[in-house]
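Entry type: protein chain
Record version: 2
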Amino acid sequence: MHPFQRCSDQLVAGGCIRPSVLIQALRLYEPHWRCGLNGVIPVLSGLVLEPLAWLQAALYARRLAQIQPPNDPVVVIGHWRSGTTYLHQLLASDPAAATARNAFTVAPQVALLLKPLIVGFLNRVMSVHRPIDAVPWSALDPQEDELGLVRLTLDTNMAGVAFPRCYPRCFRRYVLASTAAFKRELARFTKLTWLHDGAGKTHLVIKNSAHTARVPLLLQLYPNARFVLLKRDPIASIRSLVQVKQRLGGLMGFQAVPDQVQQVEETVAAHAELMAAFEASRAQIPPGQLVEVAYTDLMASPITTVERIYRDLGIAGWQQARSSIQARVAQAVNYRPSPVQLNPAAEQRLQELIAQQPPHS
């Protein structure tokens, strides 16, 4: 990878971390000195932007206190690598939909203040494809809110990506559990998202696989939240996520990346815990506020699938949204995903662990 492209990918994936968040992370976990270069972009970019973060906080304090984003956001959930990104792209292409975008999540603490500058800068420096796969991206493409939240709080799944040898600990601490402080930060982040992208829009779309375990928290904040649960063969999504974690750990990790066998074991366990957390909270979702979508259906019939989501969740404006969503589907016609292949030992371990799980897992 060219050094400039690597720096660009580091900036978008994990740059502009607020200094207080980074200091907390370094105190809690154990960075390895050999991974020190991965910290240059997060440290420098965060320090440069911190005075502007305080300025944005002061300028927008009143608006943040007054603004009320929709209390019925459409929340895309499901295990990572289950089609959540593709569905997010389609839903966010509706001109009436607001969502978090790369130009926001890269630095939410200054994204309102510097919006035109960030969009122009990212369009010049971003790589054509995401560093984790072959998916095209740009400054205004939708992005999951976990990547923006990690700039503001350590209480996210991304902590385990930055410190890959602590992944199980971070997953249980920040995904399976949450705090009152995180609840406040999530509510504030959603307000920032609406201020950034909500002008003239009628509904909010959120995509975050970690929210699969946070359904009770989301319903506390947004009682009318509407959920779309993506479901894919566990072997396929786990295999793909292990590859993604290997790549992200090498790009932005503060610790050496564990071998594939260890990451398979950790990811299989986390998958089971994530889905168990969702099933434990499923009954809390009111009738009419959950749609389940099979990955195979989304890939085979994206327009039909999205139309069903609009109908079943009562999202207004399908006739107006259809042409924009069809155009986004057309963009993906020639998309060819990156090959996903684990080493033989890791693949064997994955097959063994999945075979041990109950058939309904």
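Comment: Residues 174 and 184 are 14 Å apart (CA to CA).
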